[in-house]
Amino acid sequence: MNNDSERSISIVPSSAVQPEALAALMGEIFECEPTAENEIFTPAMFRYHQHVFPEGQFAAVERATGRVVGFTVSMRTSHDPRQPHLERWWQAIGNGWLTTHDPRGEWMYGVETDVLAEYRSLGIGSRLMEARFNVLRRLNLRGMIAGSLIMDYGAVADELSVEDYVQDVVAGRRFDTNLSKQLRKGFQVRGFIPNYVLDESSRRWGVLIVWENPDYRPDTRVPRYIPERRQPVYR
Predict the structure, then answer these.
(1) Architecture field, domain 6-212
(2) Three-state secondary structure readout of the chain
């Protein structure tokens, strides 16, 4: 890829692309079929995400080919980031359906962000995150909460505690492929989540991270998007 690659990628609402393409992309990234058993979103799940919270869903599309190369999934939550988050990722997001989305929640929950390996280090993940930040600013949310997968911890887990590892990453003594980039975007570590994901690269650890919206106005109310009540179609 040349230096113009970033400019050849468009960040669009996920509704502009087929849910099947999003599911296929996630399956390709995690090298397994998009099924609930694998904790990979199915096309029906992606379609329902766009129904319950359309503002929070984005995709990265290569302009020349129309190929979907990245995406985000988000929802709103009332979870207080000052409290421990101990729920597994899949349960926290309604087993993939975002049925735990709270349309009046004051925080955005960063459910998932993925970019194809060959398109990483091009600023696509950062642009997807900025799209989310723009939405939560417009909705006057307090900020974003997420569970960060510490992707490189597994390589040193036998010799280093998770607390020491994260402390080193925060201090800049170690680089973690995922957490380090999130810290650069202004996220702060608030806690640890055992058995957060199935992924063994982190020894199943997640790290609770929080980004506080500097433009949040506590005395200002904004319209809340509340979709019509509809149950997901499980197929």
Answers:
(1) 3-Layer(aba) Sandwich (3.40)
(2) CCCCCHHHEEEEEHHHCCHHHHHHHHHHHHCCCCCCCCCCCCHHHHHHHHHHCHHHCEEEEECCCCCEEEEEEEEEECCCCCCCCCCCHHHHCCCCCCCCCCCCCCEEEEEEEEECHHHCCCCHHHHHHHHHHHHHHHCCCCEEEEEEECCCHHHCCCCCCHHHHHHHHHHCCCCCCCHHHHHHCCCEEEEEECCCCCCHHHCCCEEEEEEECCCCCCCCCCCCCCCCCCCCCCC
